[in-house]
Amino acid sequence: MDQLFNDKEETREEMDAALDSDSSQIAQISEDVRPPDCLPEQKFGEQLKQLEGIVTQLESGQLDLEDSMKTYGEGVQLIHALQEKLSDAEQKLSVMMDEITPTEE
Question: Whole-angstrom Cα distance, residue 11 to residue 18?
């Protein structure tokens, strides 16, 4: 009977250690993901190709969990950077259109 309790206690300690290990891996992955303004400046097309490569990698199912999480985070960064570039382009086009459109007075 005492052996049963000891085995359960050891199993609990092993589970706690595994959870601590997983938590530290998740924390490391979170630290690896940086906001989009930390991305090197690339052209829109280059970033789009990079994002397509990331999607292909993730869809292949060949990455382990940690690499998948890191790669997914990189994809999210690229999406934010691409959205920002599109938004900036829309604003610039809007300003240009306003400049060439005659105003009615």
Answer: 10
Give me 96's structure tokens. 């240009």
Cβ-based burial of 102 (10 A; exposed 0-12, middle 13-18, buried ≥19): exposed
Length of the chain as a residue count? 105
Reported pTM: 0.57
Q: Distance between CA atoms of 68 and 57, rounded to whole angstroms?
A: 8
Q: What is the mean pLDDT of the chain?
A: 77
pLDDT at residue 54 greater than cutoff 80: yes
Look-up of token digits 């290990």: 21
Query: Contact 73/32 with Cβ under 8 angstroms?
Result: yes
DSSP code, position 41 = P
